[in-house]
Amino acid sequence: MNTLNVLGIETSCDETSVSIISNGILTSNLISSQDFHTQYGGVVPELSSRAHLQIVMPLLKNALQKSNLKLQNIDLICATAGPGLVGALLVGLTFAKGLSFSLKKPFVPVNHIEGHIFSGFLMEEKPEFPYLCLVVSGGHTLLLIVKSDLEIVKLGSTIDDAAGEAFDKVSKLLGLGYPGGPLIENAAENYNNDLIDFPVAQCKNEFDFSFSGLKTSVLRFIQKEYGDAERIPHGDLPKISASFQRTAVKSLTVNVERALNKFNVNSISVVGGVAANKLLRSELNRISKKYGKKLIIPSNEFCGDNAAMIAYRGSRLYENGFKFSLSENAYPSLNENSFIKL
Ligand code: AMP
Ligand code: MG
Fold first, then answer.
1. 139 CA distance to ligand 2 centroid (A)?
2. 166 class by beta-carbon count within 10 Å (0-12 exposed, 13-18 middle, 19+ buried)
Protein backbone atom coordinates (compact mmCIF):
# COMPACT_ATOMS: atom_id res chain seq x y z
CA MET A 1 0.00 0.00 0.00
CA ASN A 2 2.68 2.44 1.01
CA THR A 3 3.98 2.71 -2.52
CA LEU A 4 0.60 3.47 -4.05
CA ASN A 5 -1.01 6.73 -5.09
CA VAL A 6 -4.68 6.10 -4.39
CA LEU A 7 -7.41 8.30 -5.84
CA GLY A 8 -10.80 8.46 -4.09
CA ILE A 9 -13.98 9.91 -5.58
CA GLU A 10 -17.21 10.48 -3.64
CA THR A 11 -20.48 11.73 -5.19
CA SER A 12 -23.22 9.84 -3.34
CA CYS A 13 -25.29 12.83 -2.20
CA ASP A 14 -24.64 16.56 -1.96
CA GLU A 15 -20.88 16.62 -1.50
CA THR A 16 -18.44 16.20 -4.39
CA SER A 17 -15.13 15.05 -3.01
CA VAL A 18 -11.81 14.02 -4.54
CA SER A 19 -8.91 12.79 -2.40
CA ILE A 20 -5.48 11.33 -2.87
CA ILE A 21 -3.67 9.10 -0.41
CA SER A 22 -0.04 8.96 -1.40
CA ASN A 23 2.35 6.50 0.24
CA GLY A 24 -0.16 6.03 3.04
CA ILE A 25 -0.43 9.77 3.68
CA LEU A 26 -3.49 11.85 2.85
CA THR A 27 -2.16 14.54 0.52
CA SER A 28 -5.49 16.08 -0.51
CA ASN A 29 -9.10 15.84 0.57
CA LEU A 30 -11.11 18.37 -1.42
CA ILE A 31 -14.80 18.67 -0.61
CA SER A 32 -17.29 20.84 -2.47
CA SER A 33 -20.65 21.10 -0.69
CA GLN A 34 -23.82 21.85 -2.65
CA ASP A 35 -25.22 24.44 -0.27
CA PHE A 36 -27.90 25.57 -2.74
CA HIS A 37 -30.19 22.67 -1.70
CA THR A 38 -31.07 24.48 1.55
CA GLN A 39 -33.55 26.69 -0.33
CA TYR A 40 -35.55 23.54 -1.24
CA GLY A 41 -35.52 22.08 2.29
CA GLY A 42 -33.63 18.96 1.16
CA VAL A 43 -31.41 17.53 -1.57
CA VAL A 44 -32.86 17.72 -5.10
CA PRO A 45 -31.40 14.65 -6.87
CA GLU A 46 -31.26 16.03 -10.43
CA LEU A 47 -29.59 19.27 -9.32
CA SER A 48 -27.15 17.26 -7.27
CA SER A 49 -26.08 15.14 -10.28
CA ARG A 50 -25.58 18.22 -12.44
CA ALA A 51 -23.46 19.95 -9.79
CA HIS A 52 -21.26 16.84 -9.37
CA LEU A 53 -20.75 16.77 -13.12
CA GLN A 54 -19.58 20.37 -13.18
CA ILE A 55 -17.16 20.18 -10.29
CA VAL A 56 -15.63 16.69 -10.32
CA MET A 57 -13.03 17.43 -13.04
CA PRO A 58 -11.77 20.74 -11.53
CA LEU A 59 -11.54 19.02 -8.14
CA LEU A 60 -9.44 16.22 -9.62
CA LYS A 61 -7.08 18.75 -11.21
CA ASN A 62 -6.72 20.61 -7.90
CA ALA A 63 -6.19 17.41 -5.95
CA LEU A 64 -3.40 16.29 -8.31
CA GLN A 65 -1.77 19.69 -8.13
CA LYS A 66 -1.98 19.77 -4.34
CA SER A 67 -0.45 16.29 -4.14
CA ASN A 68 2.29 17.14 -6.67
CA LEU A 69 1.21 14.32 -8.94
CA LYS A 70 0.24 13.82 -12.56
CA LEU A 71 -2.77 11.76 -13.54
CA GLN A 72 -0.38 9.07 -14.87
CA ASN A 73 1.04 8.65 -11.34
CA ILE A 74 -2.27 7.37 -9.97
CA ASP A 75 -2.06 3.62 -9.22
CA LEU A 76 -5.52 2.82 -7.90
CA ILE A 77 -8.92 4.43 -8.48
CA CYS A 78 -11.68 4.10 -5.89
CA ALA A 79 -15.19 5.52 -6.10
CA THR A 80 -18.35 5.33 -4.03
CA ALA A 81 -20.69 2.86 -5.71
CA GLY A 82 -23.59 3.10 -3.25
CA PRO A 83 -25.73 3.51 -1.33
CA GLY A 84 -26.78 7.01 -2.37
CA LEU A 85 -28.71 8.95 -5.02
CA VAL A 86 -28.44 6.93 -8.22
CA GLY A 87 -27.86 9.86 -10.58
CA ALA A 88 -25.31 11.39 -8.24
CA LEU A 89 -23.45 8.11 -7.78
CA LEU A 90 -23.32 7.55 -11.52
CA VAL A 91 -21.34 10.75 -12.03
CA GLY A 92 -18.46 9.70 -9.77
CA LEU A 93 -18.65 6.05 -10.68
CA THR A 94 -18.53 6.48 -14.46
CA PHE A 95 -15.86 9.17 -14.10
CA ALA A 96 -13.74 6.75 -12.06
CA LYS A 97 -14.33 3.87 -14.45
CA GLY A 98 -13.36 6.08 -17.40
CA LEU A 99 -10.11 7.01 -15.65
CA SER A 100 -9.44 3.39 -14.81
CA PHE A 101 -10.02 2.32 -18.41
CA SER A 102 -7.89 5.02 -19.97
CA LEU A 103 -5.03 4.83 -17.43
CA LYS A 104 -5.17 1.01 -17.31
CA LYS A 105 -5.18 1.13 -13.51
CA PRO A 106 -7.34 -0.98 -11.18
CA PHE A 107 -10.74 0.29 -10.10
CA VAL A 108 -12.35 -0.41 -6.71
CA PRO A 109 -16.05 0.34 -6.13
CA VAL A 110 -16.56 1.25 -2.46
CA ASN A 111 -19.59 0.93 -0.22
CA HIS A 112 -20.20 4.39 1.21
CA ILE A 113 -21.19 3.10 4.66
CA GLU A 114 -18.02 1.01 4.81
CA GLY A 115 -16.14 4.19 4.01
CA HIS A 116 -17.67 5.81 7.11
CA ILE A 117 -17.14 2.71 9.29
CA PHE A 118 -13.37 2.81 8.69
CA SER A 119 -13.02 6.61 8.63
CA GLY A 120 -11.48 6.58 12.14
CA PHE A 121 -8.31 5.24 10.47
CA LEU A 122 -7.83 8.64 8.83
CA MET A 123 -7.14 10.11 12.27
CA GLU A 124 -3.74 10.18 13.94
CA GLU A 125 -5.06 8.06 16.79
CA LYS A 126 -6.70 5.06 15.12
CA PRO A 127 -9.30 2.56 16.31
CA GLU A 128 -8.03 -0.81 17.49
CA PHE A 129 -9.76 -4.02 16.38
CA PRO A 130 -12.20 -5.17 17.57
CA TYR A 131 -13.98 -1.85 17.98
CA LEU A 132 -17.55 -0.84 18.65
CA CYS A 133 -18.73 1.40 15.83
CA LEU A 134 -21.76 3.67 15.96
CA VAL A 135 -22.77 4.86 12.50
CA VAL A 136 -25.02 7.92 12.74
CA SER A 137 -25.84 9.67 9.50
CA GLY A 138 -28.78 11.14 7.62
CA GLY A 139 -29.70 7.76 6.17
CA HIS A 140 -28.24 5.18 8.55
CA THR A 141 -28.06 4.33 12.22
CA LEU A 142 -26.08 1.20 12.98
CA LEU A 143 -24.29 -0.35 15.93
CA LEU A 144 -21.49 -2.69 14.82
CA ILE A 145 -18.51 -4.58 16.09
CA VAL A 146 -15.69 -4.22 13.59
CA LYS A 147 -13.40 -7.21 14.06
CA SER A 148 -11.07 -6.66 11.12
CA ASP A 149 -10.98 -5.13 7.65
CA LEU A 150 -13.15 -7.97 6.42
CA GLU A 151 -15.39 -8.87 9.33
CA ILE A 152 -18.09 -6.65 10.72
CA VAL A 153 -20.84 -7.87 13.02
CA LYS A 154 -24.09 -5.96 13.12
CA LEU A 155 -25.60 -5.62 16.59
CA GLY A 156 -28.49 -3.32 15.75
CA SER A 157 -29.88 -0.66 13.44
CA THR A 158 -32.78 1.74 13.36
CA ILE A 159 -36.21 0.22 12.86
CA ASP A 160 -37.58 3.48 11.42
CA ASP A 161 -35.88 6.88 10.99
CA ALA A 162 -32.12 7.38 11.01
CA ALA A 163 -30.67 9.59 13.77
CA GLY A 164 -29.80 12.42 11.37
CA GLU A 165 -33.21 12.13 9.73
CA ALA A 166 -34.81 12.62 13.16
CA PHE A 167 -32.80 15.83 13.64
CA ASP A 168 -33.83 16.97 10.16
CA LYS A 169 -37.53 16.18 10.65
CA VAL A 170 -37.79 17.81 14.07
CA SER A 171 -35.93 20.86 12.78
CA LYS A 172 -38.46 21.17 9.97
CA LEU A 173 -41.28 20.79 12.49
CA LEU A 174 -39.81 23.64 14.54
CA GLY A 175 -39.36 25.79 11.43
CA LEU A 176 -35.57 25.89 11.92
CA GLY A 177 -34.67 24.66 8.43
CA TYR A 178 -32.29 22.15 6.82
CA PRO A 179 -29.97 20.42 7.60
CA GLY A 180 -31.50 20.04 11.03
CA GLY A 181 -28.58 18.71 13.09
CA PRO A 182 -26.48 21.85 13.35
CA LEU A 183 -29.57 24.10 13.57
CA ILE A 184 -31.05 22.15 16.49
CA GLU A 185 -27.64 22.02 18.15
CA ASN A 186 -27.32 25.81 17.80
CA ALA A 187 -30.82 26.48 19.10
CA ALA A 188 -30.14 24.23 22.11
CA GLU A 189 -26.66 25.60 22.76
CA ASN A 190 -27.13 27.94 25.70
CA TYR A 191 -30.21 26.37 27.24
CA ASN A 192 -29.50 25.08 30.74
CA ASN A 193 -32.93 24.95 32.40
CA ASP A 194 -35.58 22.23 32.79
CA LEU A 195 -36.02 19.80 29.93
CA ILE A 196 -39.20 18.29 28.55
CA ASP A 197 -39.34 14.58 29.33
CA PHE A 198 -39.50 12.96 25.87
CA PRO A 199 -39.32 9.14 25.96
CA VAL A 200 -36.40 6.94 24.84
CA ALA A 201 -37.83 4.12 22.69
CA GLN A 202 -37.41 0.50 23.78
CA CYS A 203 -36.94 -1.95 20.90
CA LYS A 204 -37.37 -5.73 20.87
CA ASN A 205 -33.72 -6.16 19.92
CA GLU A 206 -31.86 -4.37 22.72
CA PHE A 207 -29.34 -2.90 20.23
CA ASP A 208 -31.88 -1.51 17.76
CA PHE A 209 -32.83 2.17 17.61
CA SER A 210 -36.13 3.95 16.98
CA PHE A 211 -36.64 7.69 16.44
CA SER A 212 -40.10 8.02 14.93
CA GLY A 213 -41.80 7.88 18.37
CA LEU A 214 -39.57 10.69 19.60
CA LYS A 215 -40.48 12.82 16.58
CA THR A 216 -44.19 12.14 17.27
CA SER A 217 -43.73 13.06 20.95
CA VAL A 218 -42.28 16.42 19.91
CA LEU A 219 -45.21 16.95 17.52
CA ARG A 220 -47.79 16.05 20.22
CA PHE A 221 -46.07 18.40 22.67
CA ILE A 222 -46.26 21.25 20.14
CA GLN A 223 -49.92 20.54 19.36
CA LYS A 224 -50.85 20.38 23.04
CA GLU A 225 -48.93 23.48 24.13
CA TYR A 226 -49.34 25.79 21.13
CA GLY A 227 -51.98 24.33 18.78
CA ASP A 228 -49.54 24.24 15.88
CA ALA A 229 -45.86 24.82 15.14
CA GLU A 230 -46.35 28.33 13.77
CA ARG A 231 -47.48 29.51 17.20
CA ILE A 232 -44.36 28.37 19.07
CA PRO A 233 -42.94 31.50 20.76
CA HIS A 234 -39.38 32.09 19.61
CA GLY A 235 -38.20 31.91 23.20
CA ASP A 236 -39.43 28.31 23.57
CA LEU A 237 -37.36 26.91 20.68
CA PRO A 238 -34.17 26.41 22.77
CA LYS A 239 -36.05 24.35 25.36
CA ILE A 240 -37.76 22.07 22.79
CA SER A 241 -34.52 21.71 20.78
CA ALA A 242 -32.44 20.91 23.86
CA SER A 243 -35.01 18.39 25.10
CA PHE A 244 -35.19 16.62 21.75
CA GLN A 245 -31.39 16.63 21.41
CA ARG A 246 -30.92 15.22 24.92
CA THR A 247 -33.35 12.36 24.22
CA ALA A 248 -31.95 11.60 20.74
CA VAL A 249 -28.42 11.43 22.16
CA LYS A 250 -29.59 9.26 25.07
CA SER A 251 -31.27 6.85 22.60
CA LEU A 252 -27.86 6.37 21.00
CA THR A 253 -25.67 6.22 24.10
CA VAL A 254 -27.92 3.78 26.00
CA ASN A 255 -27.24 1.16 23.31
CA VAL A 256 -23.53 1.94 23.26
CA GLU A 257 -23.33 1.28 27.01
CA ARG A 258 -25.37 -1.91 26.66
CA ALA A 259 -22.94 -3.18 24.04
CA LEU A 260 -19.91 -2.25 26.16
CA ASN A 261 -21.38 -4.23 29.06
CA LYS A 262 -21.84 -7.28 26.88
CA PHE A 263 -18.88 -7.34 24.46
CA ASN A 264 -15.17 -6.96 24.89
CA VAL A 265 -13.84 -4.33 22.49
CA ASN A 266 -10.62 -2.33 22.39
CA SER A 267 -12.03 0.99 21.27
CA ILE A 268 -15.16 2.89 20.32
CA SER A 269 -15.62 4.81 17.08
CA VAL A 270 -18.48 7.08 16.11
CA VAL A 271 -18.88 8.05 12.47
CA GLY A 272 -21.27 9.87 10.13
CA GLY A 273 -22.71 13.39 10.07
CA VAL A 274 -24.38 13.22 13.51
CA ALA A 275 -20.99 12.47 15.08
CA ALA A 276 -20.39 16.22 14.77
CA ASN A 277 -22.93 16.75 17.57
CA LYS A 278 -21.18 18.19 20.65
CA LEU A 279 -23.54 16.66 23.20
CA LEU A 280 -23.14 13.21 21.62
CA ARG A 281 -19.36 13.66 21.65
CA SER A 282 -19.23 14.69 25.29
CA GLU A 283 -21.55 11.86 26.41
CA LEU A 284 -19.46 9.30 24.53
CA ASN A 285 -16.33 10.79 26.00
CA ARG A 286 -17.76 10.26 29.47
CA ILE A 287 -18.74 6.65 28.63
CA SER A 288 -15.37 5.85 27.07
CA LYS A 289 -13.63 7.03 30.26
CA LYS A 290 -16.04 5.04 32.44
CA TYR A 291 -15.28 1.83 30.51
CA GLY A 292 -11.59 2.60 29.94
CA LYS A 293 -11.87 2.41 26.13
CA LYS A 294 -10.19 4.59 23.55
CA LEU A 295 -12.71 6.81 21.75
CA ILE A 296 -12.06 7.71 18.10
CA ILE A 297 -14.35 10.29 16.52
CA PRO A 298 -13.21 11.48 13.10
CA SER A 299 -12.69 15.24 12.80
CA ASN A 300 -15.46 17.17 11.04
CA GLU A 301 -13.60 16.89 7.72
CA PHE A 302 -13.95 13.09 7.89
CA CYS A 303 -17.36 12.91 9.65
CA GLY A 304 -19.32 14.26 6.71
CA ASP A 305 -19.12 12.72 3.25
CA ASN A 306 -15.55 12.76 1.95
CA ALA A 307 -13.43 10.90 -0.58
CA ALA A 308 -10.52 10.28 1.83
CA MET A 309 -12.54 7.54 3.52
CA ILE A 310 -13.36 6.08 0.08
CA ALA A 311 -9.71 6.03 -0.96
CA TYR A 312 -8.74 4.46 2.38
CA ARG A 313 -11.40 1.76 2.27
CA GLY A 314 -10.76 1.01 -1.41
CA SER A 315 -7.05 0.60 -0.78
CA ARG A 316 -7.69 -1.79 2.10
CA LEU A 317 -9.96 -3.94 -0.09
CA TYR A 318 -7.34 -3.90 -2.84
CA GLU A 319 -4.60 -4.89 -0.41
CA ASN A 320 -6.78 -7.72 0.83
CA GLY A 321 -6.77 -9.13 -2.69
CA PHE A 322 -10.12 -7.93 -3.99
CA LYS A 323 -10.24 -7.40 -7.75
CA PHE A 324 -13.12 -5.74 -9.54
CA SER A 325 -13.97 -5.55 -13.21
CA LEU A 326 -15.29 -2.40 -14.84
CA SER A 327 -18.60 -4.12 -15.49
CA GLU A 328 -19.17 -4.36 -11.74
CA ASN A 329 -22.06 -2.10 -10.86
CA ALA A 330 -23.24 -3.33 -7.51
CA TYR A 331 -21.27 -2.07 -4.58
CA PRO A 332 -19.26 -4.94 -3.25
CA SER A 333 -18.85 -6.61 0.11
CA LEU A 334 -21.28 -5.08 2.55
CA ASN A 335 -24.79 -4.22 1.69
CA GLU A 336 -27.89 -3.54 3.73
CA ASN A 337 -29.10 -7.15 3.70
CA SER A 338 -25.88 -9.00 4.12
CA PHE A 339 -24.09 -7.26 6.89
CA ILE A 340 -21.51 -8.32 7.15
CA LYS A 341 -19.33 -11.31 6.53
CA LEU A 342 -17.34 -11.11 3.35
P1 AMP B 1 -24.40 12.33 6.51
O2 AMP B 1 -25.67 11.57 6.14
O3 AMP B 1 -23.37 11.45 7.14
O4 AMP B 1 -23.89 13.17 5.38
O5 AMP B 1 -24.79 13.37 7.64
C6 AMP B 1 -25.82 14.31 7.47
C7 AMP B 1 -26.74 14.22 8.66
O8 AMP B 1 -26.03 14.60 9.84
C9 AMP B 1 -27.93 15.17 8.53
O10 AMP B 1 -29.10 14.46 8.87
C11 AMP B 1 -27.62 16.27 9.56
O12 AMP B 1 -28.77 16.86 10.12
C13 AMP B 1 -26.82 15.50 10.59
N14 AMP B 1 -25.94 16.38 11.37
C15 AMP B 1 -24.95 17.17 10.90
N16 AMP B 1 -24.41 17.91 11.91
C17 AMP B 1 -25.07 17.54 13.04
C18 AMP B 1 -25.00 17.96 14.40
N19 AMP B 1 -24.13 18.88 14.81
N20 AMP B 1 -25.86 17.40 15.29
C21 AMP B 1 -26.74 16.45 14.89
N22 AMP B 1 -26.87 16.04 13.61
C23 AMP B 1 -26.04 16.56 12.70
MG1 MG C 1 -22.55 9.74 4.33
1. 8
2. buried
Between CA 64 and CA 185, with CA 32 as vertex, the angle to 5 degrees is: 140
Residue 249 in contact with residue 204, Cβ under 8 Å?
no
What proportion of the chain, given as a percentage, has pLDDT over 70? 95
Contact 280, 136 (CB under 8 A): yes
Quick check: 239 pLDDT over 80? yes
* Closest residue CA from atom 23 of ligand 1: 181
**Ligand 1 neighbours (beta carbon < 6 A):** 137-139, 164-165, 167-168, 179-182, 185, 272-274, 276-277, 304-305
Ligand 2 centroid – CA 235 distance (Å): 33
Domains in the chain (CATH in brackets) are 5-118+302-341 (3.30.420.40), 125-297 (3.30.420.40)
Among the atoms of ligand 1, which is closest to the Cα of residue 165?
10
pLDDT of residue 41: 74
- Mutation pick for ligand 1 pocket among 31, 158, 167 (CB with most ligand atoms within 8 Å): 167
